[in-house]
Amino acid sequence: MTVKPYVRAVPRYTWFLAHSRYLRYITREVTCVFIGAYAFLMLVGLKRLAEGREAWEAFVQALASPASLVFHVAVLAFALYHTTSWFNVTPKAMPIQLGDGFVPGRVIVGAHYAIWIVLSLAVLILAGVF
Amino acid sequence: MSQRLVELEVLRFNPETDAEPTFQRYAVECPEEWVVLDALNHIKETVDPTLSYRWSCHMAVCGSCGMMINGEPKLSCKSFLRDYEGVIRVEPLAHFPIQRDLVTVIDDFVTKLKRVKPYLVAGEARPVEAGEYRQTPAQLKTYKQYTLCINCMLCYAACPEYGLEPKFIGPAAISLAHRYNLDSRDAGREARQQEIAATEGVWECSFVGACSEVCPEHVDPAGALQQVKIKSTLDWFREHLMPWRRT
Amino acid sequence: MNSSPNRRTPTGSGVNYRNAEVERILETLHADVAILGAGGAGLRAAIALAQESPALRIALVSKVYPMRSHTCAAEGGAAGVIKGDDSLEHHFNDTVGGGDWLCDQDAVDYLVREAPRELIQLEHWGCPWSREPDGSVAVRPFGGMKKQRTWFAADKSGFHILHTLFQTSLQFPSIERYDEYYATDLIVDDGRCRGFTAIEMRSGQMKCFLARAVIIASGGAGRMFPFTTNGAIKTGDGMALAYRAGVPLKDMEFVQYHPTGLPNTGTLLTEACRGEGGVLLNRHGRRFLQDYGMGPETPLGKAVLKTMELGPRDRVSQAFWHDQRKGNMVGTQWGDCMLLDMRHLGEKKIDERLPLVRDMAISYLGVDPVTDPVPVRPVVHYMMGGIDTDIRAATPLPGLFAAGECACVSINGANRLGSNSLTELLVFGRRAALSALEFLDSSPAAGNAGVLAARAGEAQARLRELFGRSGETETVAGLRRELTTTMEEHAGIYRSGEGLAEACATLADLRRRYRSVTLHDKTNVYNTDLLQALELGCMLDCAEAVTASALARRESRGAHQRLDFTERDDANFLRHSLACYRGDEAPAIDYRDVVITRSPPGVRDYSGEQK
């Protein structure tokens, strides 16, 4: 007599299509590719700067191309998604207990957003935008 | 009491007669206030006594009746018919082998639970005569949430990492280890770290967060695992960068 | 058997357990002590055995995984004297009076003395008891208790006790668990219990457990009633096994109705709702308990011990019945209800002390106790009666011990006080283990291989006969429905001789018809049709013991109230009833005197003013 339990296979490459929460997760993970790509772009810029004025100006010019603009908009969107999705889970990873209770999650998340805004403003001011 | 015709599509499998599971559809008249488990009981009593599933307390505390209901891991005793429209699809918990119908094989979880040493390891022996340990309400609060795990294994059914890598110790067992690590009376963290701060432990977790979304007791296993990761990382820094602080 | 230097060596170690004759018939598993049931009492016994004698082989056999056991559903807490204003004498008096003097007082003494030790032990194992600001354990008021002595872990006390015990048990390698094995028959030879047969659910195979001592810790039998707080697993299996093996079932007529169950599902709302200050109202908004010997009314929101809403469960449920007869209850689609009003406790206290209660009331009934009174009605909750044991948790059958709800020591008498049962399963779970060890020390004799094999063969033959039946004359669900209807109708809060006689006749008929019950499912793996059929057989036997004992007790005491014999009759019935199995016949009812050491039967007084 066979009493072998039945094992349901998990599809190795398409498992994240099975549920919307898996899709949300995989999107969050994929955003890091764009964050990485932008970091690479910054490195290229740095290299061009080191190569001299001509190289740098060519680089800046290239940044203004339509393809580059599309790329920047896309990276901005992914960076925002990346940041918010991670900020929103910080209370799980970093609970703060005060006496008999825990600091509400929205306070921890809010603090992250506040610091984010302050740092962004500081960068923009340093960059001379304001 | 308003009644309604409820249609359930239940995954059936009997290892003695079936090569693979197939869906069977039942239609039964049920009061609107019933839960899915009530409907299954009604089917077993009046339509099909061969249908097999586990259940006991009917109050979401024994953890027996976890099932996939419309693709979501749920306790069937707390899944209200009023929350579902159309055909309700009922399957055994995902990621576990099917023993028979909705009954899964849970040996893997039971073995892993034992591995993480989910019991108090006292620093020094304390005789009963010495009375209770003092533990303030604040100290209790630190770990209380993680004591609420009913071992229903919905989190394992929700966790894609566990589905892909069955060696992963998984959300519930690690949360229980974390529960004891956080207990002011405990001194067993080091022994537990060997299991949970390893590859098959928290580092298999990529923080999908599904476990916490489906947990019926709001244990938040995802939080527990991230906290273990952070503390283990701090351990590493302390050990490699601050040798004088090594304990 | 190996021996290690630190173990107690029971005389008789070195006994050869191998039993070739039994093994020819059934796969046989050997243990020094086999425990049937892995809830609170079974786990406590297993841990005690493993600690006392690490080289023992302990088989912990249960029809469900340990964490599924019904101990997990206990909410309110466990009683044990710990605070300075309390005393063992108070706990003793509350328990004996609460039990309407049917408790064995030597056993109650043992219970109250061991209780604090056991609860502290549990604390040392990590139980997350609720705490006072100074870090000491907190206690809460409970029904029928004169002092605050109920240790609690919010309103999931049983859950935390069960999980603490289960998790603690994982550290002992000598505890070998057999999860999801359903025991079918005790094996008795030469006047001693030698083990039992059990079906491994995942394979459907019957196995034989041979042991030098057996402890039954299999819980109650509330499922023989249709409206009960008890989980599906509480079908009196262990009680029936012992009963059929010749051990009497004691005081079975005493069935506790918990006053506050959700009216539709029977879900328990703990007595702690009232301990924390909740009150019971009839449809006129009157706290009606004051009209039934539990008054005068106490201030709202300030629970006064041992009166009004903190009266004992039997009295409160009976008061509901009387007030219902007067037409004072609230009619709902689920029948007449009283109202459990907790609104004045406020959201913060309810969330902190009674989170499960709030969650249950909202999800199953759609009523939030923070904003509305919750309709509730009495619901079958606990069996005071059970397997006859003495103060050492030993049954009259040598080698067989019992503890927890399945056993009747008796510390609960005619009515258990809330929060004594969790304490009981700890104290007597451990006691059963110690007694089993003493028994191992004193009794080396191995069973007669031929007889054991024959017994195992008989058990298997019975199972085969059940599988072999054809035709569809009787169904499990049909018979079960008739059983539960009969019990509700005739063995409820109030009973009459006429009704009980009718119930006995119906049960005799149901037991006869049960012999031709047929299975729809004739496969092996996880056959719940088979499981339910066997459980039904156990419930029928237990139910007959209940009704026969109730019919014979021509008095009213505690939870057993007769409309035709309304008074307590100490002259004739200050005695335990003993229902003895007689096969197809109705049980014989025998009696044994109650052990009274220092508290002569008195008046149960729950009127606050006279305290």
Brief overview:
The complex is a heterotrimer of chains A (130), B (247) and C (611). Helix content of chain A is 72%, strand content 3%.
Q: Would you report the number of β strands of chain B?
A: 7
The radius of gyration computed from the alpha-carbon positions of chain B, rounded to a whole number of angstroms, is 21 Å
Q: Order of SSEs of chain A, N→C?
A: HHHEEH
**CATH homologous superfamily (4th level) name of the largest domain in chain B:** Alpha-helical ferredoxin
Give the domain tally of chain A: 2
Question: Main beta sheet of chain B, described?
Answer: 5 strands, mixed
Please, what is the average pLDDT of chain B?
96
Strand neighbour order, sheet with most strands of chain A? 1-2
Given as residue ranges, the uncertain stretches of chain B (5+ residues, pLDDT < 50) are none
Please give the radius of gyration of chain A in angstroms.
22 Å
What is the third-level CATH name, the topology of the largest domain in chain B? Fumarate Reductase Iron-sulfur Protein, Chain B, domain 2
> Can you tell me the overall shape of chain B?
elongated
The assigned CATH architecture of the largest domain in chain B is: Orthogonal Bundle
State the distance separating the first and last CA atoms of chain B. Answer: 65 Å
Strand percentage of chain B = 5-15%
Q: State the major sheet of chain A.
A: 2 strands, antiparallel
Q: Numbering strands along the chain, what is their spatial order in the largest sheet of chain B?
A: 2-1-5-3-4
Q: Specify the structural class of chain B.
A: alpha+beta
CATH topology of the largest domain in chain A: 3 helical TM bundles of succinate and fumarate reductases
Describe this structure in words.
The complex is a heterotrimer of chains A (130), B (247) and C (611). Chain A is 72% helix and 3% strand. With 130 residues, chain A is mainly alpha-helical. Chain A folds into two domains: 12-78, Fumarate reductase/succinate dehydrogenase, transmembrane subunit (3 helical TM bundles of succinate and fumarate reductases), CATH 1.20.1300.10; 94-130, no CATH class. Chain A is flat. Chain A starts with 19 loop residues before the first helix and ends with a helix. With 247 residues, chain B is an alpha+beta fold. Chain B has helices at residues 36-46, 107-115, 137-144, 154-158, 160-164, 171-181, 189-196, 210-214, 221-241, and strands at 3-12, 22-31, 66-69, 72-75, 88-91, 98-100, 103-104. In chain B, the strands form two sheets. A five-stranded mixed β-sheet of chain B has the order 2-1-5-3-4. Chain B has a two-stranded antiparallel ribbon with strand order 6-7. In chain B, helix 2 (107-115) packs parallel to helix 6 and helix 6 packs across helix 9. Chain B is elongated. With 611 residues, chain C is α/β, with parallel strands linked by helices. Chain C has three domains: 22-73 and 161-256 and 382-453, FAD/NAD(P)-binding domain (3-Layer(bba) Sandwich); 260-378, Flavocytochrome C3, Chain A, domain 1, CATH 3.90.700.10; 460-593, Methane Monooxygenase Hydroxylase, Chain G, domain 1 (Up-down Bundle), CATH 1.20.58.100. In chain C, the strands form five sheets. In chain C, strands 1, 2, 6, 7, 8, 9 and 17 form a seven-stranded mixed β-sheet that branches. In chain C, strands 18-16-10-21-22 form a five-stranded mixed β-sheet. In chain C, strands 11, 12, 13, 14 and 15 form a five-stranded antiparallel β-sheet that branches. In chain C, strand 13 (330-332) and strand 14 (335-341) form a beta hairpin. Residues 1-16 of chain C have low confidence and may be disordered. The chains are: A mainly alpha (130), B alpha+beta (247), C alpha/beta (611). Chains in contact: A-B, A-C, B-C.
